[in-house]
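Take a record:
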Amino acid sequence: MKAAGYSYSDPNSYGVRGAKAGDGSYWTGMKLVVSGVFCSKECVETDRIETLVTVNPGTETSKIVFTRETYLPNAGNFKNIQYGTIALCRGQVCGSQKTMVSSGSTRYMTLKTSSSRSGNVLTVAVNMRVSAPNRTVDDGAKTADCTGRTGSDKRCFY
């Protein structure tokens, strides 16, 4: 699939990771992991990036926080780290955003939907993509469905 210049695999096929937290108005514990390996007789992990994602879904705009927890080794072979966010409205892409990550361990993103989710279902999918020396490697995950509040409350609850 492709949206807003960002190509990704079908976000509907991503597994649900993490869980609702607090009063059910946000999703946490979603982890994205990309590993690089070198194989001859045995395969050895050469690089690893782990990013923890928190999603605060909304009826019009969702806030997503990517926090890189691990990058081993510090001078690894991964380049061009990208984070992508995809809004799914009843299985259909209704918004997407991407960003390159050049430095820092935390990235804040906003994701707008093409239509209000007030009283409607929203699923937020996330993706991390990195360039390895000979290929591109990615990992994706999604939240469970949340339902947007109506009226002046712009939150979406799981």
Remarks:
- DSSP finds no helices and 14 strands in the chain.
- Residues 40 and 96 are 39 Å apart (CA to CA).
